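> example.struct
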């Protein structure tokens, strides 16, 4: 990782900021344009880049981890809500059903499975997930902290009083 030293403060480029924070370039660009992170435009010959203090990356990660932390009572409500919602589904659920339940697209669901966020297996070229694994995912911190929530996800949270 390349650090730029100015007055004993460490800086990273926008790409390095993305790697550290686990965000996309477009998200980093939005943070820069909204001035939620500090930056300085730098020029090294023909190369132009953003110089971002490493402390801003640490602050962004800390703030993200604090956001949407659910209390035990809220988790209990969420668990009961999704258990009731999944009641009419079979014990083995396919990706199409997950799309209907969550409101997210099939590509998003496929990525969740491939990254191991939802434990799933492939049967006859199709992903399948157990109802218990889906319930664990729907009540996980990862699912609660999705930045761009689907309309269905927002409606579910509002219906149980979590906004």
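> example.seq
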């Amino acid at each position: 990782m390349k650090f730029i030293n100015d007055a004993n403060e460490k800086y990273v480029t926008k790409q390095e900021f993305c790697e550290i924070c686990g965000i996309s370039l477009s998200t980093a660009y939005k943070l820069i344009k909204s001035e939620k992170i500090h930056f300085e435009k730098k020029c090294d010959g023909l190369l132009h880049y953003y110089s971002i203090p490493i402390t801003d990356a640490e602050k962004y990660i800390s703030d993200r981890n604090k956001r949407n932390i659910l209390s035990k009572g809220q988790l209990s409500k969420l668990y009961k809500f999704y258990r009731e919602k999944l009641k009419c589904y079979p014990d083995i659920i396919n990706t199409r059903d997950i799309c209907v339940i969550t409101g997210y697209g099939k590509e998003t669901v496929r990525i969740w499975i491939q990254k191991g966020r939802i434990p799933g297996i492939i049967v006859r070229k199709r992903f399948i997930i157990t109802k218990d694994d889906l319930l664990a995912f729907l009540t996980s911190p990862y699912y609660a902290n999705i930045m761009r929530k689907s309309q269905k996800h927002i409606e579910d949270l509002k219906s149980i009083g979590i906004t």
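> remarks
The CA atoms of residues 65 and 145 lie 8 Å apart.
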